[in-house]
Amino acid sequence: MDISHYMQQVGRQAKSASRLMARASSEQKNQALRLISAAILRDAAELRAANQRDLDAAQAQGLAPALLDRLSLSDKAITTMAEGLLQIASLPDPIGEISDLKFRPTGIQVGQMRVPLGVIGIIYEARPNVTVDAAGLCIKSGNATILRGGSEAIHCNQALAKLVQEGLVGAGLPVQAVQVIETTDRAAVGQLITMPEFVDVIVPRGGKGLIERLIKEGTVPMIKHLDGICHVYIDDKADLSKAADIAFNAKCHRYGTCNTMETLLVARSVAEQILPTLATLYADKQVELRCDPEALAILNGYPHLAAAQELDWSTEYLAPILAIKVVADLDEAIEHINTYSSQHTDTVVTEDYSRALRFMREVDSASVMVNASTRFADGFEFGLGAEIGISTDKLHARGPVGLNGLTSVKYIVFGHGEVRS
Amino acid sequence: MDISHYMQQVGRQAKSASRLMARASSEQKNQALRLISAAILRDAAELRAANQRDLDAAQAQGLAPALLDRLSLSDKAITTMAEGLLQIASLPDPIGEISDLKFRPTGIQVGQMRVPLGVIGIIYEARPNVTVDAAGLCIKSGNATILRGGSEAIHCNQALAKLVQEGLVGAGLPVQAVQVIETTDRAAVGQLITMPEFVDVIVPRGGKGLIERLIKEGTVPMIKHLDGICHVYIDDKADLSKAADIAFNAKCHRYGTCNTMETLLVARSVAEQILPTLATLYADKQVELRCDPEALAILNGYPHLAAAQELDWSTEYLAPILAIKVVADLDEAIEHINTYSSQHTDTVVTEDYSRALRFMREVDSASVMVNASTRFADGFEFGLGAEIGISTDKLHARGPVGLNGLTSVKYIVFGHGEVRS
């Protein structure tokens, strides 16, 4: 197979399908989502069989158990995929929405209309559910999409692609609005991220290694985040009971998620009071505490202690490990966060009005919180209805990205024959 | 001078100034704008003297009269610059604006806060007024900026930079919030567009050649447009008197602007009626008409006619030249526009309700109009208060870019001790 030729063809087909998708009615798009949902439930047995072929091959190749777990498509996962599509169908259609339509002194009326981006490329690991979630979000937002999942999931992804395309056709939408790349050749990814003539944006979903490679090689803009180095700062005006709840939840609710706290900052004047309470809670979960000298001195005698190194302030552990640092005050906390944070999500715990507002304004991260767990930084929790990813970039989309992140706006002018004088 | 070392230093200073600018109060920023405005009027004589040095050098080098004209800073231009700053001061401050603050079922309240992008690099030709306009917009939007103007304007730009910095200091803002690059070495531009660690976005203002070079070499995202190939489509349901006004204004109001019409599309069934009327109007202005065979046959005998070549449909003339094509209907017009338009600004003239809505929805351009001249596509005409440029990209900013285009938003969460369950 000539990968370059194949990908050009996929790109050209996507571009052409994107024009038809842009003018599809809300009802057509929702009908496609409902048809795909029903087809997934109808063909659950075939999907599990395709998934089993992937699992067998992956096991034979000695894939790690955690990756096998992600690759596997349970009955519950199939039901969840089908329900997810119905949820997306029930969301309001962002496309065609007109805002801020105002008359100007010249007589023209100017506003903005929300429109699809065009063609979205999505690159992800071997998780078959992403195929359906991503296809659903792109259909709803009137985009065409090119999906490239991890090669270990190829059989299941192709089976899902067939059902997606059946739904598109059933709703009178172009079959090439959702294309799953048919080859597992990695060169296809290199092509996908360097076809700005066909692809408007890439959404990579995967580990830091994958994304760093895509940034280096890609010429198409990306909606992405690399790291989630999230902070909680416990201010000396904090309600310490809230502080304990938040600092425990932000670390221990789940270890492997990007919005998990990785560094805890504590104001010096409350450190002796709150740190032992927290250390007791963390000890229950066997969380290792990598402390700066002050915190280490306060926690002397507690289990799982270690001295923090400089590198700890900029490490995303994704594990039961927490870096702890004692700081003088809000200023030092903000300075530390703006230096070491990955600009993902940071929280202050305080009852002080002015400090709460300062933290919110001055911390330069995608999600900034007062008195809430960092774990809330998520499209569903924020009320977006769905999430295609989280962005730590500042241009276009920042923070959890829902349907609107897959759209743009254009200016529209309602005139009555006006000319410029 | 070691350009690389110098630019790194400029970048580092800008980044550090951007943090202070992000937290500056509205009143500080407005005060800086007013102080700069006053200083420009106070030092008008010195500015003209610096400008004269640039003009003398440019004349000695044989710069073209049109470029000398742009370079020259008249009394009127000085007053306009000073007034422009006061206008920017009077605009509402976009920074810190909070929108869509909503309670979620978990109890947290989620919204979005508008924040500066950080550091804006602006690359422009030898037009000293851009130095002040751009500095003003960046100050108001809480960004730091690095300005690189055409080398022919170096003395005037440096004189202006001194006044800008005087205003910043007078308002208690960091002097390095606005830096004018001190060298005319072109390598400085190459550095500026490849320092994503210091520069968040580049706004190039200049000809297509400059921008194509920047796209090829740059790694920092850009807000830009290459071409303005704008269309007017006269539908067979058009009010032909409006059509004549709009088609004349869109071409003849100014020839050299990016929102000037370059191709006129006319529905077949009204072509014989409207084209001779228009040809008479255009003949007055000696506009050359490059016609497809049908239009050519209809206009046989009129002056300044030529047969259109394929290349004419994708040429931005910036001159008294117009391409004319007869089309069957709205569908062919939309198809032609979506194929050849530079996605800048396109207009339909029609009294038909459904066709007006279809054109607005289906034409994929930054500004789409019904019954209005393309010449309205402009930040001031659209009510943005000011304009840093026009974007034909779909990501981040599209169409005329005002203060909001120099900002981003972050999610903010007001919590009360909530944790995720």
TrEMBL record, chains A, B:
<dbReference type="GO" id="GO:0055129">
    <property type="term" value="P:L-proline biosynthetic process"/>
</dbReference>
<keyword id="KW-0963">Cytoplasm</keyword>
<dbReference type="InterPro" id="IPR015590">
    <property type="entry name" value="Aldehyde_DH_dom"/>
</dbReference>
<dbReference type="InterPro" id="IPR000965">
    <property type="entry name" value="GPR_dom"/>
</dbReference>
<comment type="pathway">
    <text>Amino-acid biosynthesis; L-proline biosynthesis; L-glutamate 5-semialdehyde from L-glutamate: step 2/2.</text>
</comment>
<comment type="similarity">
    <text>Belongs to the gamma-glutamyl phosphate reductase family.</text>
</comment>
<keyword id="KW-0028">Amino-acid biosynthesis</keyword>
<feature type="domain" description="Aldehyde dehydrogenase">
    <location>
        <begin position="11"/>
        <end position="287"/>
    </location>
</feature>
<comment type="function">
    <text>Catalyzes the NADPH-dependent reduction of L-glutamate 5-phosphate into L-glutamate 5-semialdehyde and phosphate. The product spontaneously undergoes cyclization to form 1-pyrroline-5-carboxylate.</text>
</comment>
<keyword id="KW-0560">Oxidoreductase</keyword>
<protein>
    <recommendedName>
        <fullName>Gamma-glutamyl phosphate reductase</fullName>
        <ecNumber>1.2.1.41</ecNumber>
    </recommendedName>
</protein>
<dbReference type="Pfam" id="PF00171">
    <property type="entry name" value="Aldedh"/>
</dbReference>
<dbReference type="GO" id="GO:0050661">
    <property type="term" value="F:NADP binding"/>
</dbReference>
<dbReference type="InterPro" id="IPR016163">
    <property type="entry name" value="Ald_DH_C"/>
</dbReference>
<dbReference type="InterPro" id="IPR016162">
    <property type="entry name" value="Ald_DH_N"/>
</dbReference>
<dbReference type="InterPro" id="IPR012134">
    <property type="entry name" value="Glu-5-SA_DH"/>
</dbReference>
<dbReference type="GO" id="GO:0005737">
    <property type="term" value="C:cytoplasm"/>
</dbReference>
<keyword id="KW-0641">Proline biosynthesis</keyword>
<dbReference type="GO" id="GO:0004350">
    <property type="term" value="F:glutamate-5-semialdehyde dehydrogenase activity"/>
</dbReference>
<dbReference type="InterPro" id="IPR016161">
    <property type="entry name" value="Ald_DH/histidinol_DH"/>
</dbReference>
<keyword id="KW-0521">NADP</keyword>
<feature type="domain" description="Aldehyde dehydrogenase">
    <location>
        <begin position="313"/>
        <end position="383"/>
    </location>
</feature>
